[in-house]
Amino acid sequence: MPSFFKKRIMKQFRLVLCCLLIMGSFTLVAVNLDNMLGDLEAENEFLAYVDESYTEEQARDIKSQIEAIPNVSQVTFVTRAEAMAIVNRTLGRPFSAIYVEGHERHRII
Known about the structure:
mainly alpha
């Protein structure tokens, strides 16, 4: 009889162990997925360009309209001059020089 009880206890132990393993794995996946989605929500960024025909004042009016949208945490307005300075700083030389070089090479004579 003692071996019968040992086998029964071992079966129950294995069942509990499997249940804990499945539940632990599911919980681990759920927590990691929640963390990854939270990071993705925090990094959500939207970049919009304003038509060149708009004046700076009209573009700033659009900024206030965008700020009024729910779930928008921050709006940054960058003027054309500031954007060109950022591009020049990133490229290491004036964008206009690069643009002209590219077109001169591909000019049709």
